[in-house]
Amino acid sequence: MIVNDLVLLAEQFAKLELHAARGGREVQRVLLEIASASTAKTSFALQEEIRESVAYLLGFLPPYAPPLNRINQILVCLEGSARDSLDVQTAKNQLAEIADHAAGPLLNARLIATLLSQAYPEKSVVYTHTMSETILNVLQELHRWCKISHVFVTESRPNNDGWETARRLASIGIEVSLTIDAAMPFVIEKAHFMLSGAEIIQKNGAVVGKIGAFPAAVFCCMAGKPVWIAADTGKISPFDQINYNFTPFNMEDLGIGSTIPFLTVTGSYFDITPPEYIHAIATETGTFTPNDINKVVSNQPVSTWLQERLRSGINRA
Amino acid sequence: MPNHPAIDTVINRIVTDVIGGAVDTAKEVMAAMAQVAADSQASNLDGLFQDMDQAAVAIMKICPSFAPPINVLHSMLGTLERDIQASASVAEAKQHLAATQVDFLKFIETALSKIASIGAELIKDGDTVFMFSMSSSVWKVLRKAKENGKNFTVLVTEARPGNEGLWTVDEMHKSHIPVEVSIDACTAELVARSNIAFAGVDSVAADGSVFNKTGSYLAALAAREYGVPYYFISDTLKFDTSTLLGLPFRSELVHYHEVLGDKQYSDGVKVVGSLFDITPPHLITAIVTELGPIPPSACVSVMWNMKLSKRISELIPVWAYGKL
């Protein structure tokens, strides 16, 4: 049975109202509440009940690592209980012990900023695309240490999330310039490096991000500007393969008032930057090359059921 | 002395941006210059030259960095300079100027038709064609390919600010050519899906680089990355001879309201970027002209063969730096 809270959460994901980190926390809260209120008589039945909820949620989930990682953590715990034929109350108690051990975003940003500050001289010029809370916090830290002199940001259609980045950076005294997405090469040429957030850092080092991040990375490579990904380790996915089935945006998303019947609007909100375009990935636990990401999650247990579901595809409804 | 009314009219139309594109602007400039020549009361060639020169300077003062109108001025004043050198009569000179206008219109008509045929040959049946922004020359190529029985799909991005890519959507729909549209940030994705890419041209430089709506360079970089041939479509009227002197293209900047609309940020957010960008020659497969698809490195040879006016060539450096 799909509970109301889960339906509401799915709706929020479908409308992209939750960012990745908060989405992760919300998914964990709702699934643990479902487990706690469950009337299942065995740990196996509890596992099946949670799997049903997860299967429903996956139909709406954008390509965000934190919710997937929280789901994985819960399923691994349940699968262990079912395998060991634990009684349902013990299984529930083990689930309740899953706590949010992640450090606060500001502390992580400070750690990431420290790594970046060692890599670049003072008064660096940074290019970024779209908006990421991590990037905003990292830039704020770098600004505090006089490490950056200017930030260029592209507006990031649709949604224009780059506008918010520009507004927030300017409000804390960072010199910032905003331009259209088509002018990416113009601003990339003026920057020392690109700093980008991530929705998912894949095991192979590829990064899922807002549409436009991939071409920006390509042009950075052509212009000899290093591409840095800044994200906490909660964005790293332990799964071997995820088939995203990115849902294309529509005319309404683009604000196109065309009256042309059957016009196909193509493209989606996210793209994938392959590892070869990424210089380094800075996290709160250290800097990694894309090739090293595999090692970070190699010991992390993975729910085989979830891995199979992800292989066959997650799809935002 | 006040300007001829035809000159004032065309100046007003250029300044208020009501003329479609660079070629249409050139046609209107040509018509106005021809009118000045026809109505001139000058009794000798010096007087006629003064009338034409005054009109040319007035147009150049407000003319954006488009090659076609400047080439029209080269053409008209160059004709007159040759008549002065040959000691022709005023009547003969007027006749030659009228003939220059006729030749020009014929050139426009035949050049575009030749370009359409040459460009259409580059498209294969079943192709996916990426097109950036809008260009009546590229539309002609696509229509010709369709007319030749080729089935293909056009992918286009919006081309912010201005969203001229949506004009292409309308044009393709009218021509029954399947079209898909996306945002500029999807340029790489769309180019990767394409077999061939096209863009129009505002001006071509002597070194073969192309000045066009911002985003053309982005598309060219994507085309290079994915190995997709990238063609610019342009008649030689758009070859900017001022670049033979090493002069730069002049681009307008993107205005705040074109990006942020009425949204006001009191915190000092600056809007940067140019309305036009420059695609370097090494990213261009060829420029499809009425002479055929020519490699960027051959542009300079084409320009050396163009008939230039000595007077306009003298004015161009001052004009290019906005000090006319």
Could you name the key traits of this structure?
heterodimer; A: 317 residues; alpha/beta; 7-stranded mixed β-sheet; 3-stranded antiparallel β-sheet; 11 strands; 14% strand; globular; B: 324 residues; 12 helices; 49% helix
Number of strands of chain A: 11
* Mean pLDDT metric of chain B: 93
For the largest beta-sheet of chain A, the strand count, sense and barrel status come to: 7 strands, mixed
The tally of beta strands of chain B, per DSSP, is 11
What's the overall average pLDDT of chain A, rounded? 91
Major sheet of chain A: order of its strands? 3-2-1-4-7-10-11
Order of helices and strands of chain A: HHHHHHEHEHEHEEEHEHEEEEHH
- Strand percent estimate of chain A: 5-15%
* Shape verdict of chain B: globular
H and E order of chain B: HHHHHEHEHEHEEEHEHEEEEHH
Shape of chain A: globular
SS field, number of helical segments of chain B: 12
- Largest interface: chains, residues each: A-B, 40 and 45 residues
- Helix content bin of chain B: 40-55%
